[in-house]
Amino acid sequence: MSDRGFTFDFIEKEIRKKTFGVLSVVDAKGRPHSTGILYGVSPPKSKFALYIITEESYAKVRHIRRNPNVSLVVTFPHYIFRFAPATYVMFRGMAELVPFDDSDGQWAFSQKYILRMSQKVDPEILKKALFIKMNPEPTVFCYGVGFGIMELRSQHISADYKVTIPAHKL
């Protein structure tokens, strides 16, 4: 639980509503490499994990093979109140490459229309598809998620907090 009373259950519920994030990996020279991705979340009864669909030939796959340390940021922009900063949730953890027929990955990508559409591509491309499964560390870094818009505007400096993923979900 955070100082503000937010729990991982609250954060999990919020990120299940989203599908876009920014994945950061470490390249061969030790530099960060970030890319926008579509993600899905593991089934509620499974261990908590984040799934990203990709192809074998992508740079992020090569980087993960060398160094599996990754982070994923999910943003929550304010579309109407542009004066307020976007809020976010950031996971750090280890990535593993799993086959495209992974049942939890398939379930994660069956839950939202945009994710299902990402699988409706040329069958030849799907032959090269795989999932990046991100197994997060217990500490999740948050900024402003759950704050009211006026509260966030007036207290933006103190809007950061952490939540912990319960051990039974890891």
SS summary, helix count? 6
Between the first and last Cα atoms, what is the distance in angstroms? 16 Å
What's the CATH class, please? Mainly Beta
Report mean pLDDT, rounded to a whole number: 90
Would you identify the CATH architecture?
Answer: Roll
CATH homolog superfamily:
Electron Transport, Fmn-binding Protein, Chain A
CATH topology: Pnp Oxidase, Chain A
Radius of gyration: 17 Å
Which sequence of strands runs across the widest sheet? 1-2-3-6-5-4
Write up this protein.
- With 170 residues, the chain is an alpha+beta fold.
- It has one domain (8-169): Pnp Oxidase, Chain A.
- It is 23% helix and 36% strand.
- It contains 6 helices and 8 strands; from the N terminus they run αβββαββαααββαβ.
- The protein has helices spanning 8-16, 59-66, 103-108, 113-118, 123-126, 149-154, and strands at residues 20-26, 32-41, 50-55, 69-76, 87-99, 129-136, 139-143, 160-164.
- Strands 1-2-3-6-5-4 form a 6-stranded antiparallel barrel.
- A hairpin with an 8-residue loop joins β2 (32-41) and β3.
- The longest helix has 9 residues, at 8-16.
- It is globular, with a radius of gyration of 17 Å.
